[in-house]
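User: These chains co-purify. Model them together.
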Amino acid sequence: MAPAADRLARHALRLDVEEFLYEEAALLDAWRLDDWLALFTPDARYEVPSTDRPAGGPADALMLISDTRAMIAARVKRLNSRKAHREFPWSRTRRIIGNVRIISRNGDEAEVTANFAVYRSRRDVSVYMGQYRYRLVRDGDSFKIRFRRAELDVETLDAHGTLSIIL
Amino acid sequence: MGYRDGLVVDDRRNGIFRVNRALMTSPDVYELERATLFDRCWLYVGHDSEIPGPGDFVRRTVGGRPLIFLRDSAGTVRMHFNTCTHRGATLCREDAGNTRIFQCFYHAWSFDTTGKLVVTPGAEAYSPRFDRGQYNLVAPARADSYRGLWFVNYDAAAVDLAQYLGRAIEYLDLVLDQAEEGMRLVKGAHLYSVKANWKLMVENSIDGYHAPTVHATYVDFVKDSGGGQRKTALAAGSGIDLGNGHAVIESPAAWARPIAYWEPFFGEDAREEIEQKLARLVGRHGEERGRRMADTFRNLLVFPNLIINDVAAITVRRIEPTAADRHSLQAWALAPAEELEGSAALQRRLDSFLTFLGPGGFASPDDVEALESCQQGFAAAREVPWSDISRGMAKIPGSQDELQIRTFWRAYASLMDGAGFPARVEGVESPEAADAPAEAGVTR
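Assistant: Joint model of the two components:
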């Protein structure tokens, strides 16, 4: 591909990815968790490393969250219940996503990073900020999520108490 | 008014135990706890495996004091107060690392890993009578370990650690002996705070009664994953007063354990390996003890603020009070050293840990919610002054009774009154109440 065409293709991909991430964030802020769950591939994973080891992986470190697709589904089922007491009633959340970068493209898969600030309000307001790492797979005009990782920049969860929402 | 029979009511005749909610809200109580509990009891600091090599250090706040927990250049484990002997600046400002020298950033006084002051810039400006030997880093009065678990005591006159741990050692051993090559803490810690008094977290960590209600979604998850085949397991155990304020609940495993109780959550692939683990445990420790280690949940309190819960995995949880209505938590996963990084066995253990435990687990967040909701309820303490902890006083206490929580409170009240640890409770606490007619209510 000629350089200009390649640049246009990269910009187009980034716009598609941004649109996808914004729509995903809207689903989460609206607590449409079943619709959110449908965004994942069957082999998907969702991870949040511990705050003192942001580069840690589930094979050798204690994570905060290390979910297979089945565990993501179980998490959604739990959060949809009236008995997930930390999230009943649901907290209000608002996600700001930016600095979306396409790190690499490999066939129909794109590796993406983005910055996030997730505000959660229930009794108090707390802010979870950090960086997402995604592996997104082309699915027609949109994507499916194969890998989703939220690396927190907060040093502890002293201000938050828990990580009861989806980041 | 004293704590015993004042703020903590232990009515054995009627089988009623109550705790005044002012103990969870009063800044004066909080200050007194510092002096009577945290300045006197053995407090957990960290594990050998966190500082494996010479010069390795971690910093930690324990009983309100900033500590450096380290292995010196010669390999000896030490603790220093993390404050420069010159003007007080925080000496070590990283959470963990390796060093040969701690150099203060304020005036560059420098100390070796044994705590010896080795550099004072511009030394010629000090008087000939200035004795550098008086300015070495200060160590806490006592530091000692039990099988890799390091504790500190700020009271030089305290009893030895082994004597203090007493009967809790049997239960520590049931956890530590699960490893073939010793235990280690897995890298990565759960660091979070709860807006509730620290004693509520102690209660919650050894409370079997709340599990079916607070953790209903967890129990559902276990069922959905094909587990929880022993439906009455949680109610089948016992609560035990171990003396010195230590207490434990022990019950048959209600769901999967990496050592060594297979349920479908682990997958068919893991079944043979887990059954082999069980066989090796039985080989090392005999049928009865081996099966007990493999097949039993244990929630252990080492008084006043260390929790070791050996359930879906093993967590070491340190509770650090930070205000009358707030505490911070540090929790780690304890794992057998032979479960190597990258192994399926370690991943299984950590997956099992995370299902229940930690800020992102399917259960711990609801505990935090329960504790914070209690603390909010205490705002009505003038009108609703008492919490009740009477369950199981008139019977042999089970794991869903509250003897183990009363054990904490009895030790707490006794120490707060300036007395020693109370006598250990064995058998039925209130036999007289057990014989009373069912309708014979007691007026409060």
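The mean pLDDT of chain A is 96.
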